[in-house]
Structures are given as structure tokens and as C-alpha cells.
Amino acid sequence: MRDIIKNYIAGFRAFSGNARNFLLLTFLMSFAQSIFGLVFNLYILKLGYTRDFLGTLGSIPSLTVAALAIPLAVFCSAFPARKSLLASLALSFAAMAGMALFTGRAPLMLFSLVSGAAGALFAITAMPLMARSSTEKERQHLFSFQFAVSMTAAFAGNLVSGWATGFWASAFSAGDESALAYRATMLVACGLLLAAGLPALKIKEEPAAAAGAGGAALSGIALGPALLVLAPQLIIAFGAGMIMPYLNIFFKSGFDLHISSLGFFMSLMPLAMAAGGLVGPWLVTRIGRVRAMITFQSLSIPFLATMGFSGLLLPTVLAAFTRTLLMNASWPVYSVFMLSHFPAPQHQAASALYTAGWNLANAASARLSGRLQMDFGFTLPFLITITCYAAATLLLSRRFLKEDNKKPVGQTAIKEEPE
């Protein structure tokens, strides 16, 4: 552990100014969004809507991201990352404020769509910006550090959300977790999101490509090999959509937790993700990227089963923490693995394809899960998630394991230097 910490301290000192500003933006944005996210599903149910509508509402942002990611990648290739990030933050603020203030079915769906547009802008900007802001030597550390920073912020945000909602519940409704208490917490999150604009303003770079270059890069991608690279993560996306958007409801309905206790237990999940993100590069240097991903994903499956079927609070929480650590340790490793299969001019297009595919699979799964929960509870969604994780791990093993034997860790197709 000491070696891991020293590695990251040295890596952080080597990061460029753009990389550091993006890390700060990530922290502030994730902090605000996690405060909002902890109570949003509970707020919708408190308004009297069904889980089926919640599934519909939850699928809209992902479907919007899937629809807009590729067009935005083409359009935004002519603009600096700073403008795309500021536009994303503005749309995210509008969406969060709208969903907190308007309770009708149509406005909620509209602002969910706006949230998806914000997510699409951020997603197609983030990975290419980090790749351009780092050398090949720094890249895995930057991707992993950014993931860990976002999860640490989510840990803090979930704690604050639980405490804040408890405070508003006492102030407004004698301790009852009312829709008004949830709304107050969501509005606090909206205000905090504005702080993320400051580091976004400090990111300085030229447009990633000339106008029209995004379309050229997209047309130059060989679709078959690209889909093969993306397939393992898209299978995981479908499995994750069954459970992860509803994790707060799983704990709340299964164990009848108070909001402060729910906030504490939910805060453990991003903390586990942060720990996993930091451990990932350490294992990569020892066994290779593909073996590291296979190891993390295969070890997470028994804990996923324990989480879904133990029926006891402590084993469920411990299993959820461990599963989250293991499964999410592979995410930043996969991001670098994915980009390594594309030349630098295609990074934004590849990121757009990945973002569109991930969100389409995740949205379809989340929508289906809302209906399945009404008929089967969480039993069938958990079984589907386990099957998806096992299938993705098997695909990685059969198609990409040989890559660890062909080239040393860290050798990729990415050759550009930070700007």
C-alpha cells in the first residue's frame, strides 16, 4: 500500500495543469451529483410514482446519451474542451434544478432528457481530454486517479446527503422523510454544482480537431474490431443497469433503513470504487491489463451473489463493498485498454461509440429492471447481472488474453504528448 501511495504522489506531481484542473472539476461535480442522486429515486417514489415510471425516468438520460454521443463528438470536435465542459455543467444544473422543482410526469421526463444531454457532453470530452493532457507513462495513473477522485467525492456526497436530508426532515416534517425534505437536499446539490465551473474555466487548450475532423475520425474506425473491443464492457453495462441505478431502493426497501443510515451505507460504495481505482494500476504492472480486468471481474461475482441473496444486512453491505471495489477497479484499466486500440485522432470518436453503446445497454437494462422488480423483486435482476458479468469475463479471456503476452504493460497505440 505504501508503494501504491508513493506511486500516486509522484504521478500527481507530474500531471499537467489541465489534468489537475480536470481532477478538481471531477471532484466538485461528483460531490454535488451524489448528494442529488442519493435521494432522487426516493423523492420520485415519495411523489407517488411507481417503480415502473422510475425505470422509465432512469432510462431517459442513458438513452439520450446514446443518441447524442456520436453527433456531439462530431460537432464538438471544433471547440475547446473548456466550452464543452461548461456547457455540460450548465445543462446539468438546469436538469437538477428542474427535477427538484417540477413534479409533473412530463417535466420530469423533459429534465431527465436534459440531464442526458449534459452527460453526453461530459462523456465525449473527458477521456480524450485526459489522453491529451498526459504522456503515455502518466496515462494509467491519471485515468485511475480521476476515477478515484470522483468516487471519493461521491462518498462524501452520500454522507452529506443523508445528514442534510435528516436535518431537513427534522426541520420541516418532525423527522418524516417527506418529499419536501428530499427536495431541499436536491436544491443544495444544485447550488454546489456551480462551484465546478471555476476549474472548468481554467482548462486551456486548442480545439481537439478542426471542424469536420470528428466525422472523418468516426468514418475511419473499423466497426467490427471496434465492437469487439467494446463488447465486454457493453455486456457489463447491461448487467449493471439491472441493479446499480436502484441500489438505494434495494437497501431502503430490503432493510427499512433511516435516510442517515442509508446515506452511510451508500457512501461506502463510492469509497470502495475509489480504493479499487487506486489498486488497478498496481495490479496492471504485475500481471497485465487484460489479466487484471479478468481477475477483478471474476472475483466480484461471488460477492454479487452474496449481496443479492444473503438477506442479512451486514453480509450484504460487506459483499456490496467488496463487489464494488473489485468490479470498478477494472473501469479505468478498461478505459486505457480501449483507447489503446485506436490511434489518437480517433479517440473522441471511439469515446463517443463507447459512451453511446454503454448508455444504450444500460438504459435498456434499467428500463427492463423497473418492470421486473414489480413482478419478481430484485431476484431476477440480480441473476441477470451475474450472468452478464460472467459472460463479459469469459469474452475478455477468450479474445484478448493473448495481448498481455504480446506487448509489455503500458505500450499502447497512443503516442501524443500533453498539450
Architecture overview:
The radius of gyration is 20 Å and the shape is globular. It contains 17 helices and no strands. Helix 2 (17-46) packs antiparallel against helix 7 (179-193) and helix 10 runs antiparallel to helix 16. Residues 208-212 and 406-419 have low confidence and may be disordered. Helix content is 83%, strand content 0%. With 419 residues, the protein is an all-alpha fold. The chain has one domain: Growth Hormone, Chain: A (Up-down Bundle), CATH 1.20.1250.20.
Task: For this entry, give a set of tags.
globular; about 425 residues; mainly alpha; about 85% helix; about 0% strand
Short description:
With 419 residues, the chain is mainly alpha-helical.
**Averaged pLDDT:** 81
User: What low-confidence regions span 5 or more consecutive residues with pLDDT below 50?
Assistant: 208-212, 406-419
Whole-number radius of gyration? 20 Å
The rough form would be described as globular
Task: Supply the CATH superfamily name.
Answer: MFS general substrate transporter like domains
State the domain count: 1
Q: What is the CATH class designation? A: Mainly Alpha
- CATH architecture heading: Up-down Bundle
User: β content, as a range?
Assistant: under 5%
Number of helices: 17
Element order: H for helix, E for strand: HHHHHHHHHHHHHHHHH
Main beta sheet: none
Which structural class is indicated by helix and strand composition?
mainly alpha
**DSSP strand tally:** 0
